[in-house]
Amino acid sequence: MLANYLIGLREGLEAALIVAILVAYLVKLDRREALPRLWAGVGVAAAVSVIAAMLLQFASESMSERAAEAFAGIMSLLAVALITWMIFWMAKHARQLKAHLHGEVDRSLETGTWALAIVAFLAVVREGLETALFLWTGITAVGGAGTAVSGALLGLVTAVIIGFVVYRGMVRLNMSRLFTWTGAALVIVAAGILTYAVHEFQELGWLPGEDATAFDVSATLAPDSFAGTVLRGAVNFRPVMNWVEVFFWLAYVVPTMFLYLRIVLRRPKPVATTKPAKTPVAS
What's the domain count of the chain? Predict the structure, then answer.
């Protein structure tokens, strides 16, 4: 539940802040008559995301057991790639996001008709489709659809509340710091999804080493215990893991976390100012 809450919170925050930026800019321009078009685009994006999640579930249920395992493993790899791309993209472009969205709104208002709805749709649907894929992957990897959905919905509700209070100016949050640490946590979540994909590929015979146990702590950390359930739900940790799973976990987390923290913790260099040359005074 914790991993799905984090995914719902992170994706929901991005979508909520995008919508808040668009709404605030339209209000600032005194173009409130365009707000219904914006909300129409947001609504369609949400509907498309829900349909995508339903299609993923339907596709997996209609497959044979072996095909379903392959599908789950491949989609898990896709989810890891999207999570990685998402956190790095936001780390590099968060500062320019507001100016970019303002430019898109200006161009859509000049075009007229439903261009603004398209801008809102494209801005939100990416977050929604990513959330659908991540949520489906989490349910498949960990199980417990009800708990996973509840966690994701709770994260989305939290994100909407944060977006609203930020838009209304009720609370001033350090969004940069919030995105930094949620991004770091998502690196660990993505590593858990990756080990699930590796495990599926081992069961299919596509990867070796399924029986080469790296550690077994099931005697002290039972899978059905509270701690075991929390760890499995948060980072897909299992009490018994083999060396191939451990290798892929470390091979992903170490370089990804290093590069991510290097980007987000690097302070911007001060802009050098050149002093104008002194004009000699004529005698």
Answer: 1
